Amino acid sequence: MAPDKNRATAAAILPLVGGAKNITSVAHCMTRLRLGLADRSLVDDDALKALPAVMGVVEDDTYQIVLGPGTVARVTPELEAMVAESGPDAEPRPETPEHAPTAAELAAQGAAIKEARKAKNATPFKLFLRRIANIFVPLIPALIGCGIIAGFNGLLVNLEWLPSITPALAAMASGFMALIAVFVGYNTAKEFGGTPILGGAVAAIIVYAGVANIEAFGQKLSPGQGGVLGALGAAVLATYIEKWCRKWVPEAVDVLVTPTLTVLLAGLVTIFGLMFLAGEVSTGIGTAADWLLDNTGAFAGLVLGGLFLPLVMLGLHQALIPIHTTLIEQQGFTVLLPILAMAGAGQVGCAIAVYKRLRHNTSIRTTIKSALPAGFLGVGEPLIYGVSLPLGRPFVTACVGGAAGGAFIGFFSMLGDKVGSTAIGPSGWALFPLLDGNKNLGLTAAIYAGGLLIGYLVGFFATYFFGFSKQMLVDLNADVDAGESPTARAEAEPTPAKAPATI
Hints:
Largest sheet: 4 strands, antiparallel
Structural class: mainly alpha
Number of strands: 8
Number of helices: 21
Radius of gyration: 25 Å
Shape: globular
């Protein structure tokens, strides 16, 4: 997407979310533009969904606009610039006079929406998981870039090509992972309200080579012991120490005393406690993942692949991010991500079956045609929120496809052929450049491709034969105008639209 097109997309989005004054924060993840909004009722959902660049919208703790990988990273800074240019006095998008609600009505609508979302999603556990995700999600681009370089370098080494270049590529691929604890510490302090550089400074102790000369719990420490989990704990501790210091240290000496006490106290606890404890936890995570797939691989894959989409709906998938990162740090790849990626394969197969079954529903078929390419590349939100989830039963059959693909990959893990990913974020076909395992790359790629194929086929046939009741086919298999949102169409049908609420 050209720069002028990115700016045009941002310019189209801005008035539809209530203007610059209505935006309280702007951020993005791999696929979604995440906006904090002062008044949710000012958002025009239907107009947003109709924009060519928008694949869908999701309402969570922030208002999320699905733009897809690459696009979202380019549109976000354009929108941020527009919000900054508009200034604090910018007015929200004007409503048409005949539909303009009163201030009291807007306030009531906004309060109702806010309270409903709070009651549903703002549980302490989910809020904690979101904070953890906010720490690790910014690291994903570096994980992907370094992971692809590592995979390419491994291929060159195996083929014995360009031996003068491979050491340089190895340095590029490994440098970030060697210091990932520092970045985790920096982001953790930032997320928990501390000074980011102090969080990074305390976390840097973990990767410092000199810790090899220190003994704790009767054994010598090793650089990197505790990994990202230790860095996270160290930075959280540093943040609380810093906040305590800000309350009690006189302002005249705050600039000297507070950072010194923060690094000293948090550093001592990290060296003589957290590194050992977090190291034991990290080792346990790796051991548990290996045991699970070695002994119950097919069943574990079935469960993980089948439940991943519901976990995403509930926001619980964020708990897996530090686990993935720990496995990558320990073993060089995470064995869980390829299995979880099978959920997207089931979703793609499900969407194709919906396309075949609803031959006369122009709206849903148009949405599927536009969203399938992104689905094959692992961007599942358009198909989930635009097709399967509103329809209800197809969402369940998509999960069945994911379970079958996960069981296939898990079965090969039981045979000793592990399939892993050197980074987190991508799935579908986009995961191929990041694949790694304990056997040769060709076999690893073949197993992953087989899992995708199984997920596609089972998702398709499960949806084709069991995804619709007779009444659903009668209600949905009509000539619907392509301009109508499939979500809106599904919501017009009471039974399928409400089904996901029970999932």
